Amino acid sequence: MADAPYLVALALMEQNGRRALPLGGRSLPADSASGLTGDSPHAIARELALELLLRVWQRSDEGSLQRAAGPVSLLLVELPMERLPEDLPALKAAWLNTGDTVAFEEGLQAIVGRAWTVAIEKFQPLTFTPWPR
Predict the structure, then answer these.
(1) What is the DSSP string of 17-66?
(2) CB 105 within 8 A of CB 72
């Protein structure tokens, strides 16, 4: 199971002048390897993105929200399970403390297997674009 990838949706945002980085993730089922071919993420990705966006939307009751990294503010990443307990929390803490988005992106790229930006156009389905391009 340690070899099974883990999907994480994360949002780099600001609320009331303070950085926030909510995230949510899910381990992939053992039989999901066939769904991880090509450039598209597993079907669970849409569910993770929706759950995270609903949590972010609920936070709007606490004040205005703003994307902190433009089109890279909403990401879905696939990473090995062993990267979760230390590497991802360390990157998150560093970004929350410094706001250095470039360093965050470089650190994230170093630990992930694959990554996608998440976006939507009016009257179009949710799109996952491989990141970095």
Answers:
(1) TEEE--EEEEEPPGGGGGGG-TTSPPTHHHHHHHHHHHHHHHHGGGS-EE
(2) yes
What are the pLDDT digits (tens) for 89-118? 999 999 999 999 999 999 999 999 899 999
**Beta pairing partners, 55:** none
DSSP 81-130: GGGTTTHHHHHHHHHHHH--HHHHHHHHHHH-SEEEEEE--TTS--EEEE
Residue linked to tokens 């340690």: 2
Show the tokens assigned to 21.
């980085």
pLDDT, tens digit (0-9, with 9 covering 90-100), for 15-59 = 999 999 999 999 987 665 544 445 677 788 999 999 999 999 999
